[in-house]
Design brief:
The protein is mainly beta. The chain contains one helix and 60 strands.
């Protein structure tokens, strides 16, 4: 009773709504005359055993003394659900509705079966002792969802475990790991927990606030589907991460590496997707091991610099570089590469494969190529060189001026590749081998009579040779004594690619050709020239200097192919022509 101005007034009693026949929540008949309101405040709702109520509207429970006791069934086929702001959800029946949202003051003593598409928790400690099936989303906004004795939490196939500021605690209950489901991280920085300690993870979504980081905590995590990073970063933290389907990142959502972390990319669906690592601090873009396994013909693109500390392993597929280097540490190696699994360097990008080459060691293989084909580089430092890093990349086409000018490979007899080699070592004295596949030979290129040309201020000429068969369906040519790096190309011995030379057609007359005894070389002017007779190995057999005319006696030479090289001693312009000794 309430006393007011001396008058005694009866207190208003909280109402109780009890279902008496199966029916809709909003139908008064279901409740014997009056339906409960959609905002239940300090009132009680009871669904007895044997009764089924269809939740045909969204319902909110508020008020500390509100309660809903379900000993029968509360279900629906619409998008409606229940928000428990405060009050108690009790009973031992069945709840099968679209969603339930537990706010901070809600309490839960229900011991029956719960099947919901979505459950959201904000209760500081929400202890559940019954079976809980999530069909679509488990949203841990805050607080602790405690799995008590007899609780089995099942996330159905394709459902999503959404982690904000809340967690799950195992307190005698268990997780049913029978279905592949997704995990999504949102909000601020956090460390992974039980949600990634399971073997039924399908897709991993990182949609955290910009600038925040998810840190891996388990020693090994397997993503059976895709890693999708929309915002926020992922720190590997020295742990192992395996991805088995695809990877999708925005350029601002990056992976922070670790020198002790292994990353296995066993991807079945790639469409030249790009992987980004943090680009500040060497440790942030370092891995111990990277394994590339791509089951289609596309490549995974590296969108930032990456350092490999132990091994880069190719199982299948390609890794493409854009404008950043892939650096293989001096103690690391590259394995498993072949003519369909290698490092693709960009046609227009500046990304290089960087590897250490030790003095006096065997050739170091740079397994590079373009999307058109495998085109490896092999580098060996002689005893006169110093150990250190060399970089290599390759592009399609040969340009007139090395990096610019007319595309000479459109008409010239060449291998349709340019290799770009550089080094940070103090002294380069290297032997190099360049490899290519037959499909790269254009315009009637003759691999039996070709040479490696280096562009300095022009494409130089050396004595040609015959290519050898290389690994993985390639052909190879070797050039020794390289002290200047830069662009390199493989050129037919008869081909001229705008060399710094005397025009051979207009200015260089050699006769007779073929010759038996004496061959004459006539220049169009009286400048001083150096004349050299060279064999197929590059050995200089005869050398003389004179003005615009010279002769070589071929009598003592065996029949075969030789080269006459003429150098203008004033301009250093050169030209080489082949002659036949009968």
């Amino acid at each position: 009773m309430i006393a007011c101005l001396g008058v005694i007034i009866p207190a208003k009693l909280s109402a109780t709504f009890t279902a008496v026949v199966p029916g809709d929540w909003t139908d008064p008949v279901t409740w014997g005359g009056i339906a409960p309101p959609l905002l239940v405040s300090n009132e009680d709702v009871v669904i007895p055993e044997g009764m089924t109520v269809n939740l045909d509207a969204d319902v909110v429970f508020a008020g500390g003394s509100s309660s809903m006791t379900i000993d029968g069934t509360l279900s629906n086929t619409t998008f409606n659900g229940v928000t428990v702001v405060s009050g108690e959800l009790a009973g031992d029946g069945t709840i099968a509705i679209w969603w339930i949202h537990f706010k901070q003051l809600a309490s839960f003593s229900f011991s029956g079966m719960v099947n919901v598409r979505s459950l959201v928790n904000e209760v500081p400690v929400l202890s559940i002792g019954n079976d809980l099936n999530i069909i679509d989303t488990l949203d841990l906004k805050s607080g602790v969802l405690e799995l008590a004795d007899s609780c089995i939490l099942t996330l159905r196939a394709g459902s999503t475990w959404k982690v904000d500021d809340g967690i799950i605690s195992i307190a005698g209950g268990e997780l049913n790991q029978g279905y592949l489901h997704n995990v999504m991280y949102v909000g601020t920085s956090k460390t992974t927990s039980i949600e990634l300690s399971i073997n039924t993870l399908k897709h991993l979504f990182i949609k955290m606030d910009d600038g925040n980081t998810l840190t891996l905590n388990d020693s090994a995590t397997t993503v059976n589907g895709s890693l999708v990073m929309t915002s926020g970063n992922l720190y590997l933290n020295g742990k192992e991460l395996k991805i088995r389907n695809s990877i999708s990142q925005t350029p601002t959502s990056r992976i922070r590496g670790h020198i002790n972390s292994d990353l296995y990319l066993n991807l079945t669906s790639v469409s030249n997707d790009t992987i980004y690592f943090e680009n500040t601090g060497a440790g942030n873009h370092s891995l111990n091991k990277l394994r590339i396994g791509i089951s289609d013909s596309n490549a995974l693109v590296l969108g930032s610099e990456l350092i490999i500390g132990s091994v880069l392993e190719f199982a299948a597929g390609k890794l493409a570089l854009a404008n950043n280097d892939l650096i293989i540490s001096s103690s690391a190696s590259v394995s498993g590469y072949n003519d369909s699994a290698y490092i693709v360097t960009s046609q227009d990008g500046a990304g290089n494969l960087v590897m250490n080459v030790s003095t006096g060691s065997p050739y170091t293989t740079f397994p590079v190529g373009t999307f058109s084909g495998y085109s490896p580089v092999y580098i060996q430092q002689t005893a006169s060189g110093t150990s250190g890093n060399f970089s290599a990349r390759v592009r399609n086409s040969v340009l007139e001026n090395g990096t610019s000018g007319t595309v000479s490979s459109e008409i010239s007899k060449v291998v349709d590749r340019t290799w770009f080699l550089n080094s940070t070592t103090s002294t380069v004295d290297a032997n190099i081998k360049l490899g290519w596949q037959q499909a790269a030979e254009v315009n009637g290129f003759d691999r039996e009579n070709a040479y490696i040309s280096n562009y300095g201020t022009s494409w130089d000429q050396v004595a040609p040779g015959s290519s050898a068969g290389g690994d993985f369906n390639t052909f190879e040519l070797t050039r020794s004594g390289i002290i200047d790096l830069g662009p390199f190309a493989v050129i037919d011995s008869w081909q001229v690619i705008k060399l710094n030379e005397i025009n051979p057609e207009a200015a260089f007359t050699i006769y007779p050709n073929p010759a038996r005894d004496v061959v004459s070389i006539k220049m169009p002017d009286s400048d001083d020239y150096k004349y050299e007779l060279v064999d197929l190995t590059g050995k200089i057999l005869l050398s003389e200097s004179s003005k615009g005319f010279n002769k070589f006696n071929l009598t003592d030479l065996e029949s075969g192919c030789y080269f006459v090289k003429v150098t203008n001693l004033s301009s250093n312009a050169t030209v080489t022509k082949r002659i036949i000794k009968e």
